[in-house]
């Protein structure tokens, strides 16, 4: 990141605080243990309220002298923790004490599949991360408005809903009281503060934190403070990861416009507030000295609930702020469509050409249609955001538990190949798809067995007030209160699976070069003594994403069939959706997967998202996009990313034309999600040898960006290989 001189005092203050942060985990843990010992017979809702009260009242609150917002309280959350079970003690306490029978059974049941390399998953069968709040409702009603709604719903609620309503109302009271603690701390600091600029900041916080977000914000700064406070504090109190700031440009524009017209803000001042928010994430997660996952997304563009494209002055200011300070640990998810103005697309490409690989491009035309196809209301679908990297969740209306379970598709295929002989390829094809479906159903069944009890061991009543329909139903999000209660089990290795199945078709059924038993024996030997056959597979048999018409038809049909392996009912009464979201698991699962029929050697990485296999060379962006057009990505409700690597283009109009052309072709082909890397293999290799000279070399990894020299050698080698294969 680049330090803007005027922000140096703020950055220094943030760095000093987070470098020495004491999350008070031990002290708070003792208080929670004492609470459980005294009140352990109470309901999970009552215990959750007691937990939130302890965290909010016994934690130290901290107001920064130079930072224009408030949210930092200890509550057990360490420097590099964004939520989930790691958000100690809030995230794990009730889960560990009350949920043990459920997560332990889940862990034990899946252990053989982990050992076999079929799956990568944690011990947690429920989703404590990648969540989104109804920021629109918070900004429109304030927390007091949500409280009034909860009280009104409680009056008509059935007796069995009262524990939920009481916990939800108490949670809102605790959150508002916590905000008032920041106002009081700012007032205390004013008693001794003499710096005029600092006093002005503290006066604003002292005045505002007692009103907002209890009441709806009026100004741009108040609205941004509300979003930041609720995202940070709700996540910490509930012990979940609320990864996204939401569709900031759409939400903040009315406040910005009103402030400008009233003379309350300038363009420069608004941009500085946005920069402060970006700097906070960069400093907290120590961006300058290493990579730490932040799970922080900002959504840009897209459309409003009526379908009107969003691109406004706040969109422009956010992108300018990023371009000027070069923060890489915040993920910018740019929703794009055929209806967006070229000015918006050009500004996105300008950031890309500035060697800032922080953008992911999400195709509104495809994603919204996919959600509608799966039964979600179009107005809700238009509010989709990115849950953690670029996985999709509908902001404020959906709770999707995901990014905790990854299924190794090629590993399952190897199992299918060894099960029996198949007289025809059609029999093998059907069995391969059936085996994936059976495995998906097995994992779903195990998750459901635990998730059905989620509300009894770790409910989320405060979060539930900020998700549509929970208050109307009188149900916590953990019990299916959200309008949409979905789950996604991510399949990994699409191209590896597709290419392998197609190679078996050619080798064993079309050309008869090997019998299936002979081929499986060859794979178990890692192609020992058969490199000529392996080269034949790599160079003569078509591959997914290479633009071959026959292969494109095969890929399109197989992916359509694989989209049908989900659809099960989850433990909250919702639905399982198909997903191919790999994150880093394409590498980790690849390490544990034997040689595959597509020519991949044992231990090599699997393919990423919708992209061709990692070792396939000579594939152009045109080939990839042409092949993408053969897939109906509306069959997949989640982000199915195509990753394209280009040379390190200069910042000029010719390069702009290239990127705009690729983006336009991607939209026209009906792609799902696009990530771009602009790389120079010689520069990357040089950076490996002399990292101290290339600390500003930034790369897109998979769903996130990082300084190349801060990655481990395995990641570095894989990224260098991406560029080499494009030569």
Overview of this protein structure:
- α5 runs antiparallel to α17 and α9 packs parallel to α11.
- The chain is built from 29 helices and 14 strands.
- The chain starts with 7 loop residues before the first helix and ends with a helix.
- Strands 1, 7, 8, 9 and 10 form a five-stranded mixed β-sheet that branches.
- It has a domain of 241 residues.
- A hairpin with a 5-residue loop joins β5 and β6.
- It is globular.
- It is of the alpha/beta class and 727 residues long.
How far apart the termini lie comes to 30 Å
- Report the sheet with the most strands, covering strand number, pairing sense and barrel closure: 5 strands, mixed
Percent of residues in helices:
40-55%
Strand content: 5-15%
Query: How many helical elements?
Result: 29
- Radius of gyration from the CA trace? 26 Å
For the residues shown, what is the average pLDDT?
95
Number of strands: 14
**Bulk shape:** globular
Q: Structural class of the secondary elements? A: alpha/beta
Residue runs with pLDDT of under 50 for 5 or more positions: none
């Amino acid at each position: 990141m680049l330090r803007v001189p005027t922000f140096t005092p703020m950055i220094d203050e943030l760095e000093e605080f987070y470098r020495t942060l004491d999350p008070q985990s031990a002290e708070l843990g003792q208080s929670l243990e004492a609470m459980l010992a005294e009140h352990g017979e109470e309901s999970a809702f009552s215990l959750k309220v007691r937990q939130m009260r302890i965290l909010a009242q016994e934690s130290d609150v901290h107001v920064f002298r130079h930072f224009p917002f408030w949210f930092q309280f200890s509550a057990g959350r360490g420097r590099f923790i964004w939520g989930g079970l790691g958000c100690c003690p809030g995230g794990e306490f009730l889960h560990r004490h009350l949920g043990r029978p459920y997560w332990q059974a889940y862990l034990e049941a899946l252990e053989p599949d982990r050992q076999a390399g079929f799956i990568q998953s944690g011990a947690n069968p429920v989703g404590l991360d990648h969540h989104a709040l109804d920021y629109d409702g918070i900004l429109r009603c304030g927390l007091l408005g949500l409280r009034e709604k909860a009280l009104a719903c409680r009056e008509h609620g059935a007796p069995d809903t009262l524990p939920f309503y009481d916990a939800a109302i108490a949670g809102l009271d605790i959150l508002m009281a916590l905000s008032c603690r920041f106002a009081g701390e700012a007032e205390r600091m004013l008693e001794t503060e003499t710096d005029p600029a600092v006093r002005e900041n503290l006066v604003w916080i002292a005045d505002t934190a007692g009103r907002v977000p209890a009441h709806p914000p009026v100004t741009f700064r108040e609205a941004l403070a509300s979003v930041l406070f609720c995202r940070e504090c709700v996540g910490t109190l509930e012990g979940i990861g609320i990864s996204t700031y939401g569709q900031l440009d759409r939400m903040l524009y009315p406040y910005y416009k009103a402030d400008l017209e009233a003379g309350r803000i300038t363009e420069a001042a608004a941009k500085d507030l946005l920069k402060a928010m970006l700097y906070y994430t960069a400093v907290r997660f120590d961006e300058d000295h290493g990579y730490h996952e932040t799970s922080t997304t900002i959504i840009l563009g897209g459309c409003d609930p009526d379908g009107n494209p969003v691109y406004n002055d706040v969109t422009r200011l956010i992108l300018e702020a990023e371009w000027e300070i070069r923060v890489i640990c915040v993920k910018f998810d740019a929703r794009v469509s055929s209806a967006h103005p070229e000015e918006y697309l050009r500004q996105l490409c300008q950031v890309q050409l500035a060697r800032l690989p922080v953008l992911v491009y999400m195709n509104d035309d495809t994603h919204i249609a996919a959600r509608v196809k799966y039964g979600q209301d179009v107005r809700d679908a238009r509010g989709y955001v990115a849950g953690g990297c670029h996985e999709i969740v509908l902001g404020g209306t959906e709770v999707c538990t995901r990014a905790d379970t990854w299924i190794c598709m090629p590993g399952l295929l190897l199992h299918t190949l060894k099960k029996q002989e198949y007289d025809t390829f059609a029999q093998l094809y059907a069995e391969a798809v059936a085996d994936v479906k059976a495995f998906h159903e097995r994992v779903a069944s195990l998750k459901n067995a635990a998730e059905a009890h989620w509300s009894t061991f770790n409910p989320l009543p405060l979060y539930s007030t900020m998700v549509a329909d929970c208050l109307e139903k009188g149900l916590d999000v953990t019990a299916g209160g959200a309008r949409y209660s979905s789950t996604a089990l991510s399949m990994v290795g699409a191209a590896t699976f597709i290419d392998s199945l197609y190679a078996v078709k050619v080798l064993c059924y079309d050309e008869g070069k090997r019998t299936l038993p002979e081929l499986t024996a060859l794979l178990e030997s890692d192609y020992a003594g058969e490199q000529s056959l392996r080269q034949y597979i790599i160079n003569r048999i078509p591959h997914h994403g290479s633009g071959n018409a026959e292969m494109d038809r095969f890929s399109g049909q197989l992916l359509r069939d694989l989209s049908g392996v989900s659809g099960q009912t989850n433990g909250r009464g919702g639905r399982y959706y198909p997903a191919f979201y790999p994150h880093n698991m394409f590498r980790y699962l690849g390490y544990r997967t034997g040689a595959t029929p597509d020519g991949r050697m044992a231990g090599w990485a699997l393919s990423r998202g919708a992209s061709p296999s990692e070792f396939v060379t000579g594939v152009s962006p045109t080939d990839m996009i042409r092949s993408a057009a053969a897939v109906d990505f509306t069959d997949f409700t989640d982000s199915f990313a195509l990753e394209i690597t280009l040379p390190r283009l200069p910042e000029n109009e010719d390069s702009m034309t290239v990127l705009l052309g690729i983006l336009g072709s991607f939209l026209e082909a009906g792609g799902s999600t696009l990530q771009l890397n602009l790389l120079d293999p010689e520069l990357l290799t040089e950076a490996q040898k002399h990292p101290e000279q290339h600390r500003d070399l930034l790369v897109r990894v998979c769903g996130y960006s990082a300084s190349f020299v801060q990655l481990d050698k395995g990641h570095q080698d894989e990224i260098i290989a991406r560029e080499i294969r494009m030569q």
